[in-house]
Amino acid sequence: MMATRKQSSRTSTASEQRAERSPLALAASIAGRATLLGVHFSRGMFEFISPDESGSVAGEIGTRVEHSLADSALRSTVNIVIEVPCPDPERGQRIRISAAIELSYNLSGDAPPNAKEAECFAKINGVYNAWPYWREFVQHCTTRMGLPPLTLPLMTAARALAHAGFRESGPDPSADDKSGG
């Protein structure tokens, strides 16, 4: 007895095609109609800590991004933390600097983005747009702490993807790191 297999030939719907796109492509699909309206810090902290208070690997930057979408308003909250060895061991073993940076975007156009497009845009562009403010905050904090200024590397698209929690197929995100950091 021979079994026959029925093959269906169907075309992908627009939503299925969007689901198959990379996070960067999903973010880019609404980037052209997004306007950054405002950036503000909702939290910022810097402190000397002992090794037993540490919650991360020294020098590693941790990020967590939350977002919300209502009509044409998209809000991205980028929570960032870094711990580094303290150059003055008498003051502490490590320095922890953290901040929550809120970014508000307006999205023009008639069609609202789908949930995945909004998430990818909020995470990737949120990190990318918050980064200059974070770099300045870290440098300012270390100076205010009486320490040499800590200058973080510039943000790249590959780093923004990694900090947003995405892995793009292709080269390793650190491969574009020509700045030494």
Explain this structure to me?
With 181 residues, the chain is of the alpha+beta class. The protein has a single domain (22-169), classed as Bacterial Protein-export protein SecB (Roll), CATH 3.10.420. Helix content is 29%, strand content 29%. The protein has four helices and four strands. The protein has helices at residues 14-20, 23-31, 115-144, 157-163, and strands spanning 34-49, 61-70, 73-85, 94-107. A four-stranded antiparallel beta sheet has the order 1-4-3-2. A hairpin with a 2-residue loop joins β2 and β3 (73-85). α3 crosses α4. The longest helix is centred in the C-terminal third of the chain and has 30 residues, at 115-144. The protein is elongated. It starts with 13 loop residues before the first helix and ends in an 18-residue tail after the last helix. Residues 1-12 and 170-181 have low confidence and may be disordered.
What are its keywords?
4-stranded antiparallel β-sheet; 181 residues; alpha+beta; Bacterial Protein-export protein SecB; disordered N terminus; disordered C terminus
Q: Helices and strands in order, then pairings?
A:
Blueprint: H1 14-20, H2 23-31, E1 34-49, E2 61-70, E3 73-85, E4 94-107, H3 115-144, H4 157-163
Antiparallel strand pairs: 1-4, 2-3, 3-4
Average predicted confidence as pLDDT: 83
**How many DSSP H or I helices?**
4
Helix content: 25-40%
- The CATH superfamily is SecB-like
What can be said about the biggest beta sheet?
4 strands, antiparallel
- What string, H for helix and E for strand, traces the elements in order? HHEEEEHH
CATH topology: the name is Bacterial Protein-export protein SecB
Strands across the major sheet, in which order?
1-4-3-2
- Roughly how many Å is the radius of gyration? 21 Å
**Unreliable stretches covering 5 or more consecutive residues:** 1-12, 170-181
Give the total of beta strands: 4
The CATH architecture can be given as Roll
Total domain modules: 1
* CATH hierarchy class name: Alpha Beta
Gross morphology: elongated
For the terminal residues, how far apart are their CA atoms? Answer: 66 Å
Question: Which percent range describes the beta-strand content?
Answer: 25-35%
Q: Could you say which structural class the secondary elements and strand pairing correspond to?
A: alpha+beta
